[in-house]
Design a protein that fits this description.
mainly beta, eight-stranded mixed beta sheet, six-stranded antiparallel beta sheet, about 0% helix, globular
């Protein structure tokens, strides 16, 4: 099992619902979401922010490219590569400029205080598994715009299994 990380550093999000990180395995590939994290450094005011993780099966997000980085530096590059544009099989990206018309199926829905940030480390039975044959993309998303749009960091760690 090889482990990779997709990072969205210091991004400015749109004033709308926005996917922070999107990952879609290709056919024959399976990924397991091991960890997700969101923090913000541009505001010292306490505020609650909704957070959502889910899957989308059609009309995908339009994203900015981000290359998955291996946790073990001797591992090869991930089978998933960054794309600027519409998410497709075997691609990933960050900070969606358009969410696409497809329905996001909610797998986790919560909220956090922006001063503390948010960290999700599931037990093994709670890990989200996305099969490439399902033609679904995983998304870490703000379902509503945050009060402060600048200074956001997001990161998703996944394993290719």
């Amino acid at each position: 099992m090889r482990v990779y990380k997709v990072t969205a550093p210091n991004i400015t999000v749109a004033n709308q619902a926005v996917s922070l990180v999107v990952i879609m395995p290709t056919a024959g590939q399976t990924i397991k979401i091991l960890r997700a994290e969101v923090s913000q450094h541009a505001n010292a005011t306490s505020a609650q922010q909704r957070i959502l993780m889910g899957t989308k099966a059609s009309v995908f997000q339009t994203v900015v490219t981000a290359t998955p980085k291996p946790i073990n530096l001797s591992d090869p590059a991930s089978g998933i590569v960054g794309i600027s544009g519409s998410i497709a099989a075997g691609k990933c990206g960050i900070n969606a400029s358009a969410e696409g018309a497809g329905t996001l199926t909610d797998l986790y829905n919560g909220a956090f205080n922006v001063l503390n940030g948010w960290l999700w480390i599931p037990t093994p039975d709670e890990q989200i598994i996305i099969n490439g044959g399902s033609a679904q993309a995983f998304a870490l998303q703000f379902p509503a715009a945050p009060t402060t749009l600048t200074g956001w960091n997001a990161e998703v760690t996944f394993a290719e299994v």
